[in-house]
UniProtKB/TrEMBL annotation:
The keyword Disulfide bond applies. The keyword Transcription does not apply. Residues 7-213 form the Thiaminase-2/PQQC domain. Keywords: Disulfide bond, Hydrolase, Thiamine biosynthesis. It comes from Brassica campestris. One of its GO terms (biological process) is thiamine biosynthetic process. Pathway: Cofactor biosynthesis; thiamine diphosphate biosynthesis. GO terms for cellular component: cytosol. PANTHER family: BIFUNCTIONAL TENA-E PROTEIN, BIFUNCTIONAL TH2 PROTEIN. Belongs to the thiaminase-2 family. This is aminopyrimidine aminohydrolase.
């Protein structure tokens, strides 16, 4: 199901996973002020993402009927704990004081979307599709910066490894499998909603990268 949707929305998926900012990291031409902007905004995003993932965890425990769903999501939540610590050390490395960073419009809109996804009326299959999309865009984007022939600056490989590593790729595949299993049993209405939510995630991700232009 998901691959069919990605084919259908291929140009949007490419826009989200091969944004100029990401390509500039890979080719080494990245403007460091763009990186700092992204870092500050993504720190704020992750703080909003934690309650969303916690909500996914609760729903995985209650609704999935598969014990492994909860374990996969718990793994994601645990890595967000490390991620917040990583952001803090990266913030001091780059001189970005998160206490003064103001959430930009694209970030606020993404937060509002996450909040809407926490409503109990949103089906588990739809939530899982959104969750996969959010994680997969970062995985694909940062893995691209580590691929053959990259000129990624050494001081940015830490960021790229965080989402581009093989463990994170495996985790995204697990989340995708959960979403696919749920979508197989979903109603026609839920399928329409899941596709729409996936498109909106991709649009939010493009808008998020756009903030790095300043
Ligand atoms: C904007 N999307 C954004 N930030 C992140 N840290 C993730 C996704 C994680 O996958």
């Amino acid at each position: 199901m998901i691959d069919t949707w990605l084919d259908k929305h291929r140009s949007l998926y490419t826009a989200a996973t091969r944004h100029d900012f990401v390509v500039s990291i890979r080719d080494g031409s990245v403007d460091l002020s763009s990186f700092k902007t992204w870092l500050g905004q993504d720190y704020l995003f992750v703080r909003e993402f934690v309650p969303f993932v916690a909500n996914v965890l609760i729903r995985a425990g209650k609704e999935s009927g598969e014990t492994s769903d909860m374990e996969v999501v718990l793994g994601g939540l645990a890595s967000l704990n490390d991620e917040i610590e990583w952001f803090k050390s990266e913030g001091s490395k780059w001189g970005v004081d998160f206490s003064t960073v103001v959430s930009q419009k694209a970030n606020q809109e993404y937060s509002r979307f996450l909040e809407a996804m926490m409503g109990s009326e949103v089906e588990y299959s739809v939530v899982m599709t959104a969750f996969w999309g959010i994680e997969a865009v970062y995985q694909e984007s940062f893995a691209h910066c580590l691929g053959d022939g990259n000129k990624t600056p050494a001081e940015l490989t830490g960021a790229c490894n965080r989402w581009g590593n093989d463990g994170f790729r495996q985790y995204c595949l697990c989340v995708k499998n959960i979403a696919e299993r749920c979508l197989e049993n979903a109603s026609r209405e839920a399928l329409v909603e899941a596709e729409d939510v996936l498109v909106r995630v991709l649009e939010h991700e493009v808008a998020f990268w756009e903030m790095s232009r300043g």
